[in-house]
Amino acid sequence: MSKRKCHYRFFTFLIACVFLTGLSGAAPAQSQDGSAPSVAEAARRAREQKKTAAKPVRTLTNDDLPAAPVSRANAAEALVNRAKAEDNAAETSDAKQAQAAPVNDETSREKNAENAAALEHAKKELAQAEHELDVTQRKAALDSDAYYSKPDFANDKDGKANLDAEAQQISEKKQAVETLKARVAELQALVGEAPSSEPDKNPPNN
Question: Which of 54, 90, 118, 195 is exposed most, by the fewest CB atoms within 10 A?
Answer without folding.
Answer: 54
